[in-house]
Write a structure and sequence with these properties.
The structure is a homodimer.
Chain A (H helix, E strand, L loop, with lengths): L1 H9 L10 E6 L3 E3 L4 E5 L4 H12 L3 E6 L11 E4 L3 H11 L4 E4 L6 E3 L16 E6 L3 H6 L8 E8 L3 H12 L3 E6 L11 E7 L4 E8 H16 L5
Parallel strand pairs in A: 1-4, 1-6, 4-5, 6-9, 9-10
Antiparallel strand pairs in A: 2-3, 7-8, 10-11, 11-12
Helix pairs in contact in A: 2-6
Amino acid sequence: AIADAAEDALRGEGGALSGRHVVVTAGPTHEPLDPVRYVANRSSGKQGYAIARACRQLGARVTLVAGPTALPDPRGIETVHVETARQMLAASEAALPADAFVACAAVADYRPAYETEHKVKKERGGLTAIDLTENPDVLASIARHASRRPALVIGFAAETDDVLGHAEAKRARKGCDWIVANDVSPGTGTMGGDRNAVTLITGEGDEAWEDLPKSEVSRRLAERIAGALGPAPG
Amino acid sequence: AIADAAEDALRGEGGALSGRHVVVTAGPTHEPLDPVRYVANRSSGKQGYAIARACRQLGARVTLVAGPTALPDPRGIETVHVETARQMLAASEAALPADAFVACAAVADYRPAYETEHKVKKERGGLTAIDLTENPDVLASIARHASRRPALVIGFAAETDDVLGHAEAKRARKGCDWIVANDVSPGTGTMGGDRNAVTLITGEGDEAWEDLPKSEVSRRLAERIAGALGPAPG
């Protein structure tokens, strides 16, 4: 009970995001081919979960839309579990209206074009390729939502080369306000690790946050979100 | 220290598998397409980890070759972490000689034919299919090992239809001694769950073990392995 009270205090009722609703997506998506096989993106979910916690600590109501991860549900945060990109989009839309949307999940761009009910057997001719079809774009769909676009829409860009170039292009293409760009090349240790080096791209300049714990990246981002939204009305 | 002593006692030095070396594979494999995307099989690893623990409790030395799971390394068991089917085969061969090999992992039959160093960008024409190539067969490779075939080689068959028919065929095709067949259709709750319903196929008849905790399936299997191997020489 003492720990609960301490955590409630940390949640900062009356904090800079008090009265705000923030939706955060986190983790990978898994796109099934048959009952046992799937195509996936790598993502531990750690950065997205940390952002959800950081926004909660500034007093926001937070909805976390989480793909499959090994992480426990964070306390005090409504966590909606999904598996596929289509489910992640539906859960994100269902969570609106929101003041800010943070698309931290590593959504699979593509899914298998056909999903079979039974396991595809190797001995029945086998598989020579997985035909793909494009998934809906969760970030762009929310950033261009006809009736309920959040005031602030933030995407993440996980790139392995020309990180800033790809990220600037992504900001324009998706219609989002900010992009948090990071380099996930093998060897950076970002993927699955506890630290991150990111560049925040706001359209008013780039800001590099170098080699910080994911919790600190999250705290800074939550504060920037609060600053951009200003005090909640009422 | 008391817990450690209790656990050492449970390990049954002088148990029915004392003096034996058992290699167990567990979990899925992940087959990379590029630094962020991969093709995978579903497997929590729970059944394989439980078998490794059950063999250890009967006194065996156990090597656990584990694909990516969310499970902690079991105490007192040498755990080798791998990602791909090729790595799983290499680690399994490196663990020989062994008295028994239990292939519980859900190894991906196929991997992407080409792995790229940089993330494949959607805007550069995109992906329309993932070309596949066949993975090495871990179970058959160990069951047909030229110089160091373990005395007892056991495979698992996760099927969604005609479970026994597919499993009997698999036993012959792979050259293994026993098959543990289970039905992983959606709705059975086997996948990722803590219970299992299996049929042990030994070539001398089928034995159904219905709706048991995975720990109990493991205990029975470890005892059957000990019975088949008999007392260790020396």
